[in-house]
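hiii so um. not sure if this is the right channel but i have a protein structure encoded as C-alpha cells and i wanna go backwards to a sequence. like what aa goes where. can anyone help
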C-alpha cells in the first residue's frame, strides 16, 4: 500500500489540470517534493507526491533503486487517469526517482515530459 499526497491549486475548478508525479530519491519520502510544489502550483500544475515502496510511510521491506518502483508509478498513473481530473502527466524524479522516471517513461509514451534531478 502506497502513501501519497496530491497537491492542487487552492481554487481548482472542475477542469482537468496537468499533473507532475514527484518521485523521491533513496532514503527519501514524498516530503521532498517541496521545491516542485513551490514551482508548479502557481502555474496551475498539480503535484502528486508518493512514498515509493519501502520508503516513507508506504509498505515494503526494501527499495530496488527503480527496478520495482516503476510498478508504483504505474499504479499512480492509473489512479490519476481513473479520476478524470488530470489532463497531461509528467514525472519529476530525484536520484533513485530519476531512474524510476526513465524506466517508466520508456514504457508509457503518453507521459508528457520528465525532469531528471
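sure thing!! here u go:
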Amino acid at each position: 500500500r502506497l502513501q501519497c499526497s496530491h497537491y492542487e491549486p487552492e481554487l481548482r475548478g472542475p477542469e482537468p489540470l496537468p499533473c507532475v508525479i514527484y518521485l523521491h530519491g533513496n532514503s527519501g519520502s514524498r516530503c521532498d517534493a517541496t521545491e516542485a510544489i513551490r514551482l508548479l502550483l502557481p502555474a496551475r500544475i498539480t503535484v502528486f507526491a508518493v512514498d515509493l515502496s519501502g520508503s516513507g510511510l508506504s509498505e515494503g521491506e526494501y527499495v530496488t533503486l527503480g527496478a520495482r518502483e516503476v510498478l508504483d508509478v504505474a499504479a499512480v498513473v492509473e489512479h490519476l487517469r481513473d479520476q478524470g481530473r488530470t489532463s497531461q502527466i509528467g514525472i519529476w524524479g530525484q536520484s533513485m526517482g530519476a531512474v524510476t522516471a526513465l524506466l517508466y517513461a520508456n514504457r508509457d509514451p503518453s507521459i508528457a515530459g520528465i525532469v531528471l534531478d
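oh and The chain is about 30% helix and 25% strand.
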